[in-house]
Amino acid sequence: MIRHNAGAGVIAGGLLGAALICSIQTAHAQSDKKESASQQRLRFDIAAGELSKALSSFSEVSRMQLVYPSNLASGMKTAGISGDYTVTEALGALLAGTGLEARFTGAMTATLIRVSREASRTLGPVRVEGVQGANANAGINGSTDTTATEGTRSYTTSAISIGTKSPESIKDTPQTVSVITRQRMDDQNLTSLSDVLNQAAGITMLGGGTNPLTPYSRAFEVTRVQVDGSAPVSMGATYSYQNLFEMAQYDHVEVLRGADGLFSGYGDPGATINLVRKRPLSHVQLSTEASAGSWNKYRLVGDATGPIAFDGRLRARFIATYQDQDYFFDVAESTLETQSLTFEADLSPGTLLSIGGSAMKRDSIPLMTGWPRYLDGTDLHLPRDLCACVDWGYFDTESSEVFLRAEQRLGERWSLDLKSTWTDQQTKLKYAALYGAIGTQTGGGTSLSAQREFYSSKQFVADATLNGEFELFGERQRLTVGANYQDVDAGEYELYVFTGESGISIPDIFSFEPTDFPEPLSDYRRSLYPAMGQKQWGAYARLNLTLWDRWHFPLGVRWSGYEYEQVQQSYSSSGVPRAPTVYLWRRNEFEPSQFAVIYDITSSLSVYGSYASINRGQADQLTASGEPLAPVTGDNLELGLKAQSADGRLTATFDFYRLEQKNFGISDLSVPRVNYGNGRTCCYIADPNRSMLSQGVDLEVAGQVLPMLELQASYTFNQNSQEGSSFGEIEGTSFQSQTPKHLLKVWSTLRPSGAWRRLELSLGINAQTATYVAGTTCTPDVPNPVTGRQACVPGTSVDYSFTEPARAIVSSAARYHLTDRWLVALNIENVADRRYYQTVGTTVGNNRYGTPRSFELAIKGSF
After folding, report:
1. Which of 10, 109, 440, 450 is such that its CA lies 20 to 30 A from the CA of 797?
2. Do the beta carbons of residue 533 and residue 565 sit within 8 Å?
3. Per the omega criterion (within 30 degrees of 0), is the bond before 683 cis?
4. Pairing of strands 285-293, 297-309
5. What does the alpha-carbon distance between residue 180 and residue 166 come to, in Å, rounded to a whole number?
6. Do the bridges between strand 100-106 and strand 126-128 make them parallel or antiparallel, or are there none, so unpaired?
7. What contacts 416, CB < 8 A, 6 or more positions away?
8. Which domains does the chain have, with CATH numbers?
9. Global confidence as pTM
């Protein structure tokens, strides 16, 4: 077992951070400087109903003076509020969806005005003039982020930033977007990015073992991940990019399905993920969590935030986690430690500066690949608790991150947002993998091969965005212009293979034991990449044009540049270096990116149609002249209907989509084939008769469907196929058969009132239709009597196909509030203990079981 005393250090650090904030806050309170009245937390119990009555109750509790014409709130309704809020939070919640805006003109005085339909789309607008500095549009729970979900207790949100670069409602974003809120993560115990994406609408997770799962959307791998809406982090430059993200540090996750070339540049069109960090809060908030679960899983979390100096204008947040776990299969285990620290300061009434960083360390004995199958694809039915690994393997990762953000108000209608992030990840890896189909009933046919690797990834991403509004045609128009940049250095990658002991034949897979194979000691370097990096830059502009009150036309264009450099040095088995291969590619282009039309049927219901361009590089394929092929291009078309309740607590979307890619490279038969190494070959030409088509339907409902019931439910239909005469007999067949045609995800939480108010019950289901794999594998020969290894018989092969049946995985949870500050929670995954494969690979390997029934018990406190 891997055990570290560092876990105690992480928690001690969390307690130290909490004590530091508390002590500074106490010293601050003992001084004569008083907190702004608008940020004091008060208890509000205001029933839903007429807005005018609710505002009167608000004034009585808060002692605030509200100034507005007597008929301004006439006939308007509010959802009411219940709980502890600051004055700005309470007033914002009461005004949600009414089209009214509160402008603080003094510490205890605010004026209510009516704003245009365009400006009122963000839930709870509250502008503070001369009181809270840069926090002009306060979010919920004392956060300066208007998209924050922490403290809302909701499964939806009134505002997102993905796809628009500015706070916008889901209803008014002309693409398919889903959100996993902080409350949803807490209720379902979603602690990793894999956990979150496995519950996100339209996302299929493939992979398994000890590694994070790989997400797919609309049959394409998801390769774009943003943090706080900045330029995307490169996924290909990190061995396991999801290890960079510990969900305790994030407020919510936004997922835009389909192409997002306008703000993200080159890449696959499946989806873009945006993780939104937790920000420091305007009041002291401490939370802690301890949990224990199946297979010796233990987890501790500490989160401390609050004002620390300068009358609350300087705030901080410290978050630490420690996790130690085994897995349902033997041998494998891992430990995880993370810490993050963020400072946020109001430098002036219109300037907000945030600076922070995080560190992560993960050590594990990994399961890198799954099980093989019989030659014809028949399942071996091996035990789920057996690991296709070795006990001397390791997968150790350390990463660090530093980020800086500056937000500047420019008058009443314009703002400038500057973001930059530096990340550094180092990974050391040593493992053995099974490879080879089982040819006989005796269990022979597969072998065990080992290798050692080292990865290094340094990334810098930056984004500058100018957002503003202006009057034109008698309507308020919104403009976003900006630029982003990405610089990735993934050089120093090294691959070592073992001599002598590598490729050990397994005579009987049914007798395989991870501890039966000694650790190989002799290896040699197979390849080295002294340089491997990419740079991507771009400028974008998006105009949300309103010509008439109900008609909106978001239009966007982007100019992009891309540069890729790679130097590969390979070696013989005796260590002699071969001639290095050098590759450099650069491309600049101006392209249409996004066009849409939105029609507001009512203030709560809209219909939209949108187009987004697709641009994905295929620089690994070279033409006869030595130039890389032009990128794969394509079109993303959507038509949808979106709804949002007046109080912003319920959203619903229904979308049709059609995504097509074309200009794929095919072999140029007019010239000889050349292999340059590392998967780059020559020569290719673009094929006009080859395309990939993905089309279907997305449906999602999220939020408060009944007064005591919170729900997030989604259904996705996807049909993907390869089209064009170049495919021959396989034309029309699926190009990604491991993603299901039908996908259903539901999670619901019942929060009773009255005598049962302390008990919460949750129930969820992830269901999908069958998936399949088909292909051809070679027939293994008899073992070589000298080496013991098996090889393929020349000229022989076996066709195979197999299906992973449809499945429905049920999960549940129960939480009991011991007091207003403490609760206990029990989460059960795979309640029926369904036996299934999370991923089906091929006959030679990578078939990985899904997790059996598991339990996790937690106690959580907040202060």
Report:
1. 450
2. yes
3. yes
4. antiparallel
5. 18
6. parallel
7. 406, 407, 408, 410, 464, 465, 466, 467
8. 37-131 (3.55.50.30), 285-862 (2.40.170.20)
9. 0.84
